[in-house]
Amino acid sequence: MTIVFYLSAAVAVIATVLVITRLNAVHALLHLIVSLLAIAVIFFTLGAPFVAALEVIIYAGAIMVLFVFVIMMLNLGPHAAEAERRWLDPAIWVGPGILALILAGEVGYLILRGAAGTTGAAIVGPQTVGVSLFTTYMLGVELASLVLLAGLVGAYHLGRRRGAGEDGEGERTNG
Amino acid sequence: MAEVPIEHGLLLAAVLFLLGLIGVMVRRNIIFILLCLEIMLNAAGLAFIVAGSRWGQPDGQVMFLFILTVTAAEVSVGLALVLHLHHRFKTLDADAMSGMKG
Hints:
heterodimer, A: Four Helix Bundle (Hemerythrin (Met), subunit A), 0% strand, B: mainly alpha, Helix Hairpins, 3 helices
């Protein structure tokens, strides 16, 4: 499984370099998602399957979708359709596609081997993490909930429209 | 099966963190700055996971969960601020927002 670790590490670094060198935000997002998936594979090989799943679901899923929403909102306009057409150009998605294909190959390799999939490290499963989270780190969980509440209130306050607007969608047109 | 040395995992975390730092310093688009902050937070989480895996303890994963929480809160507020700034300045260039002479 060591080879899987190093291959994923290479994919993560390459994808991250591509993130900080892209000019278009959507292209950078595609590469960043691939980078996060590679890091999820690394977590899995390091014996942390629970966190690997969370990395895919929350990071690559929820947080990146938030970014996509905002970028799409800011891109509204007459040139949006033309930009959409340019993004469907194979030259755009073939890079992240190849990197993601490497990761998919690794996943298939891990499944076919049927082994635990770690690099020799002991697997620390969800149960152990959960017990530790809700006993030793109980105070941390409470503080995390406060942080999330503050984030919720802050985002609501900032996202609220000043003045008499009702809809949140067309705010760009008369801003 | 040979175990991956902890140095290699930490090295990977350091490289990713440096890439994020370079991105924050080089790019001037706020969206990209937020993305690079994500990269840096993720690299810090990777270091926690590597260390936790080295000792076989769940504490590293717990810390990663906390980092995940902080990231989610940071991104929601940060993106709301981006929308707000785009309203006001009609651009995403961080240099345009120089009201505080920073």
